Amino acid sequence: MKEEVVPILETERLRLRPVNERDLPVIYLLKSEEQVLKYQYVSSKTLDECHEFMIRYRLIDLNEPSYLWAVELAGTMIGSICLWNFTENYKAELGVEILPEYFRQGYMSESAQVVLEYAFAVLGLSEVWAYTHPDNYPARNFLGKLKFNEISTSGSEIILVRTSASN
Predict the structure, then answer these.
(1) How many Å is the Cα radius of gyration of the chain?
(2) What is the pLDDT of residues 17-41, one digit of tens each?
(3) Which ranges of the chain have pLDDT less than 50?
(4) CB under 8 Å to 166, separation ≥6 — which residues?
């Protein structure tokens, strides 16, 4: 394994940068906040588990790349966004988390748009996937605005896919 090179991406309001050790308190909030975890399939994390999560996503194995960005607003981390779960046929999964006080202000849409542009234009991905709980209507609306299409629904999750930068 070697250190992953995660590029800095910017939007009009936000800066997306690689996570670092100083982000641990916010990562802990994201991984333990009830409103953030409500529709996720994971339980609340301890501080040590959050540290392990950060280390795992900051390292890269050629067979398991991952990109984890801290989402900053005016120098303050407000969430995270990642591309992970890459497949051999140029597909990956998108994951997003944002602190509740920043819900529904367009920050994750703005972040996701620049990450999707990077995924298709720079990484050359053919598809980006997302998973959400059927009752998570805010996430379904968010992904729909990003031009993800629902392709499968089971009792516990909905699978959505976006197939190109111009979709």
Answers:
(1) 15
(2) 998 889 888 877 777 666 555 555 5
(3) 1-3, 61
(4) none
Structure tokens at 12: 């009009």
Edge-to-edge strand ranges of the sheet holding 91-98: 9-10, 14-18, 67-73, 76-84, 91-98, 127-132, 158-162, 149-153
pTM of the model: 0.84
Is 2-162 assigned to CATH 3.40.630.30? yes
